[in-house]
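FIELD: query
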Amino acid sequence: MKLDLTGKRALITAGAGGIGRRTAELFSAAGAKVFICDIDQDQLEDARDKVPNLNGTLTDVSNKEALKKMFNAAIDDLGGLDILVNNAGTAGPTGPVEDVDFEDWESCIDINLTCTFLMTQMAIPYLRDAGGGSIVNLSSAAGKFGFPMRSPYSAAKWGIVGFTRTIAIELGTDQIRCNTVHPGAVEGARIDRVIKAKAAAKKVSENAMRDELASIASLKTFVTADDIASMILFLCSKAGAHITGQALSVDGGLEGLV
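FIELD: result
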């Protein structure tokens, strides 16, 4: 099946690396014009150099004024909007809930959940003007299971699910489809950092922590950025034209989190 986005205009937060970068690459290959933001200057420049039909800007999504400035730059560059992918996120602190500093809680909620809310608010008028479109919000397996020692992250990711299902109802008459993707443990630098922090908190080796995380998936493996990006592409294409309000897992069959 060829998934075509010819003529579509897409904005992807945190689009220079990992899931965001692979999504940008697949969107571009499918014919879309893509605008990304990221906090990593080197990765951003690499994406602009190597991905056709892509532009972007350095942005700290926790800064609300910077977020608005980036969004306006994206609209100027794209000439409108058909697709929004809210991919920006942070792992947040690792530790028992009673030890979590409020500032760390607030930062985690801001980047993972509040950014998604603000981006969606700004995007809606342009998606309406386009006659409809697609919003995909990145949650996590932590948005469907409890996640010990990661309470701020889990709270934010559960919040994304409720937010997405609600806006799908609100925006359905405008032909704006809204879905959530639940990635499992995704191979790459981010999960390596999570494993390191959880191993330290549980006082086990990083290899033991990695094996434990893989063991609770039915397929006994981690997923890849390509797995997640392919689902996002499907949802934003005509093949996903009647899918909305859904929380779709790409996680190898996770049975829980540790």
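FIELD: remark
The CA atoms of residues 189 and 195 lie 10 Å apart.
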